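Handout for the seminar on molecular recognition.
Each group receives one record of this type.
Step one: identify the two inputs.
Step two: read the structure output and locate the region that could contact pyridoxal-5'-phosphate.
Step three: write two sentences on what you found, then compare them with the reference statements printed after the record.
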Amino acid sequence: MRRVYFDHSATTPIDTAVVDAMTPYLTEYFGNPSSFHSYGREVRKAVEAAREKVALAIGADPKEITFTSGGTESDNMAIHGVAYMNKNKGNHIITSAVEHHAVLNTVKALGKEGFDITILPVDKYGMVNPDDVAAAITDKTILITIMHANNEIGTIQPVKEIAAIAKARGVYVHTDAVQSFGKIPLNVDDLGVNLLTLSAHKFYGPKGVGVLYIRKGTRWKQTLMHGGSQERLRRTGTENVPGIIGLAKAAEIVSANLQKEQDYLTKLRDKLIKGVMDNIDKVILTGHPTQRLCNLASFCFEYIEGESQLLSLDMKGIAASSGSACTSGSLEPSHVLMALGLTHEIAHGSLRLSLGKDNTEEDVDYFLEVLPAVVQRLRMMSPLAED
Amino acid sequence: MRRVYFDHSATTPIDTAVVDAMTPYLTEYFGNPSSFHSYGREVRKAVEAAREKVALAIGADPKEITFTSGGTESDNMAIHGVAYMNKNKGNHIITSAVEHHAVLNTVKALGKEGFDITILPVDKYGMVNPDDVAAAITDKTILITIMHANNEIGTIQPVKEIAAIAKARGVYVHTDAVQSFGKIPLNVDDLGVNLLTLSAHKFYGPKGVGVLYIRKGTRWKQTLMHGGSQERLRRTGTENVPGIIGLAKAAEIVSANLQKEQDYLTKLRDKLIKGVMDNIDKVILTGHPTQRLCNLASFCFEYIEGESQLLSLDMKGIAASSGSACTSGSLEPSHVLMALGLTHEIAHGSLRLSLGKDNTEEDVDYFLEVLPAVVQRLRMMSPLAED
Amino acid sequence: MYSEKVMDHFENPRNVGEIENANGIGQVGNPSCGDIMKIYLVVEDNIIKDIKFKTFGCGAAVATSSMVTELAKGKTLEEALELSNAAVAQALDGLPPKKMHCSNLAADALHAAIKDYQEKHKSA
Amino acid sequence: MYSEKVMDHFENPRNVGEIENANGIGQVGNPSCGDIMKIYLVVEDNIIKDIKFKTFGCGAAVATSSMVTELAKGKTLEEALELSNAAVAQALDGLPPKKMHCSNLAADALHAAIKDYQEKHKSA
Ligand SMILES: Cc1ncc(COP(=O)(O)O)c(C=O)c1O
Ligand SMILES: Cc1ncc(COP(=O)(O)O)c(C=O)c1O
Ligand code: FES
Ligand code: FES
C-alpha cells in the first residue's frame, strides 16, 4: 500500500545528511565535551562549530545559542528564567490563546505562583492583533511570549510588529519558532525578539534536542535545572552531542534550501487546499488564508470526528493529524481551534495535513482521491449529518 | 601514539550493538510516538518495549519508568517533584556532602526557597554513616537523597540501610545511581528506594537520555516542565526516541554482562591501584578501600596540581580526569575531596582513572610505565616539593 | 493501539444506519467529549429483531456501537439490558484505557433505546 | 583549548628550577585557586642575568611562568617591571578566558622578585 506522510508538523524524518553528520559522534567521537583531554577537546570543538552554524542560521552570535533537550524545555527555560529574573521589575506576562502547551502551561503555572497573566484572544484566523498587545502592556509587564507560527493551523503571527511595540515599552519578547524555522526566513535581529525557541526534529533533525536563543544583555537566568556548569551555566547536564551535531547540520541544510522548499511546498499546499475545498462540501479551511505556513493545510469537516478521520486515512496509508500531536489521543478539543470561535462539533472534525520536502504531487493526488470516500462514509454514520 | 581512555566515569563510548539498535530509529522509524497513525504507532511500540527492558534491568514495573534528557534532569525532577508534592507534610530534606551537583545544587536551591536542608558529612573514605541519617530525620523530613556510588572517588554508600531507616520513619529516599548501574547489581526493591536516577551515557548508551524511576504510590509530580502530555504527564516534550531505544539496549547489555565485567574490571582496577601505590611516593588512594566501584581508581598526588597532571598524561595519549568532569576546567577544588577532609593542595593533586570494558591489562601497564616520569617532572617544577 | 477486532468493526461496521419504523430510539452523548451515539430498535415479542446505529465519535466509539448492535440483535430485552460495558469491550478484545468510556456510551445508548421502547409500550 | 605555544612551554618549560645564590626572590600564590609561583633572580648591573621559576599550578600557570622568565631574561629591571600580564598572554598566542588570571600571577611573581631585589639593595 502507498504510504503518505502528511504529519511533518508532528515530526520530520531525519535528513540522511544529518544522520551522516551524527554518526561519527555516536561511534568514534564519544568524549564528554567538558573533559579536559583529547577525547573531550575534539568533541568540544565540534559542539562549538555546531553552535556557530546555528547562530549563522538565525543571525545570532554563537554566545547567544544554548542547546537544550527540545522545544518544550526551551520554552520553559525562556519563560521561567525571564519571569524569575525580572520579578523586581514587574510580574505581568502576556501570551496568546493559541500557543503550544509548552508555552501556555508554563505561563499558567506562573499565574499560580503569583504572576499576573494575560492570555490574548485571536481573530477567526488565529491571528493576534498587535493593538491588543499594545493595550495589554502595563508598567508591570516583563515578558510577551507569542509564537512565530502556529502548529495546528499554520497562522503566522505578526511577531515583528509585536516586538517593536514591546521594545518601545522596555518589555522582553520570546517567540516559539519551532514550526516556522526552515519554512519562513528567520533572523533574530529582523524579528527583534529577545528569546527564541527551536526544536531539531521539526526541521529534519533528531528528536530530543533544541535551541534557546537568548539575546545578549537579556536579564535571564537558568532557573529550572541545577547541576554542573555546562553551556556557560545556561543548561546543565552532559550535552547530547550527536543531537547537537545533527541539529546544526539540519539547520544548515534547511537554511540553504529555504527559498526552494518554500516555493515547492507552497505549490503542493495550494493544490491540496484547492482540491479539498473544491471536492468536499461543509468543510472550512482553518487558519489564515494567506499568512500561513507554506507546508500546512488544516480543515474542519462538519459532522465528522477527527480520530475516525485519522483512522480512516491511516487505513489508506495516509498519516495526518487532528489538532496538535501532543493532544491527539486526549479527549479535550484543541484549545487552538476553540480560540478561533469554532463549536465543539466542528473543532472535533479537524484535520491537519503538514507537508514536507519529500512529499510529491502524487502524494497530494492520492490523498485527494481517497478523501471523498472517507468523508462520505463517516458522514453516513454520523447522527449529526441527518439534519 | 597509543591512546588509552581512562575516563569512563565522565562518559563511555557507545556499544556498537547500541548504535545498531538506534539506527533504524534515526532513519526508517522516525514517527512521533504520540502520533495516532502507523508511523507513530510503530515507534510507540518500540518506546514501550524499551521501557519494559529498563524496568526488567532494575526490577521495576514499566509504569515506574520515565525517560528524561539525562541524569541531571532526573535528579532535578526527582527532588523538586517530591519536595513540592509533600510540602504539606514537611519541609526537611537530607542529602550528603559528596553528591553530584545535580543533586546538591537542587537541594541547595530548595534551601533558598524555604526548605530546611541537612547536608550530612562523610567519613574520610567518603562514606555516609546511616546513624547520622537516623539522627537527622525529624517529623518534618520528607526526602533523603543519597547517591548509590560516588563519581569522583567511587565510594559505595549504604543506601539499603539508609532506605530501611527512612522507610521506618515514613520518609522517601531518592538515589542517584548514575555511576553504579551496570557496575553493581541494582534492584529497586532490594535497595528499597522510592526514586532512582540513571543516565545512559555512563553505561555505553547515548548522551542526552536518562531515566527516573518512581515507585508506584510515591507522592511525586512533574513540577519543572510544563507542556504536552507525554510520558503519562511525567515528562513533557517529544520523546528522544533513538536515545530511549539506545538506553534500553545498553541497559539490557550491561545487565547481562554485569558479573563478568565486574570481575574483569576489579582485577584491572586492583592492578592499577597496586601499581600506583607501589611505585609512587606521597600519594593517597581516595575513596573507600573496599566499598568502591569496580572500575574506579582515584588518588591524590602531593605537590602536584591536577590539570598539569591531566595535560601531561594527555600528551602521552592517556585520558583521565581530576575530580568530576563537570567541574574540571573550573577553578574550585572538588567539593567531594574537600568533604574527605583533605587540604586544598592535596585535593588539587587528584587524579581519577575510571576503567571500562574495552580497557586491557596493556592499558594499565602503559599507564604505570608513563606515570612515574610525569609525577617526577611536575614535582621537580613544584615549589611545594622543596620542603 | 486498537485491537484487530476494533479495527475490523471500525472498517466494516455492522448495522450502520437508521430504521424508519423503529419502535425504540436511544441517544446518548457526552458533550465534553463531543461524541454522540444513536441507536434504533425494532422490538417484536420482546425480542430485538432489528437494530441500527449512527455514531459521531472516535474509532472506539464506532467499533463499540457496531459491536453492541451485534451483541444485542436477537436478544430479549432483559438479556439486552444485561449487556454491560465490560462485555462490549471484551467482545472487541479490549480497548485502550483512555477509550474505555466509549464502551459505556454504546451500552448506554442501547439501554436508552430499550427504555424508550418500554416507555412507549408501557400501557401494552 | 591551549595554543601550541602554551603546550610547548608546558612540555618544555624554560628556566625551571631554583638559583642558590639568587639576589631577588618573589613568590605569589592564590590560596583560593591553590596555585603558587616562585621566581628566582640574579641581577647584575641592573640587568636580569639569570632567572628561574618553580610553579604549582595548571598548564597555563606553568607556561606563563616559563614565558615570563624568557621575556625578562637580559632585560633591565625597569624594562622587566613594564612586562604586563597582557604581554605574557600575547607572547603565548593567548590564553583561554578562564585562565587569564594565570598570566597575572606570572607577571606578579616577577615583579615581586624585582621588588625583593630592590628592597635588599636599597642602601646601595
Ligand atoms: C509550536 C511548538 N512548540 C513547542 C513544541 C515542543 O517541541 P518538543 O516536542 O521538541 O519539545 C512543538 C512540538 O510539539 C511545537 O509545535
Ligand atoms: C553521579 C552523577 N549524577 C548525575 C550526573 C549527571 O548526568 P548527566 O550528565 O547525564 O546529566 C553524573 C554525570 O555527570 C554523575 O556522575
Ligand atoms: S468517542 Fe470520545 S473518546 Fe471515544
Ligand atoms: S593556576 Fe589556577 S587556573 Fe591556572
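Reference statements: The interface with chain D takes residues 36, 41, 44 of chain A (CB under 8 Å). Confidence is low (pLDDT under 50) at residues 324-330 of chain A.
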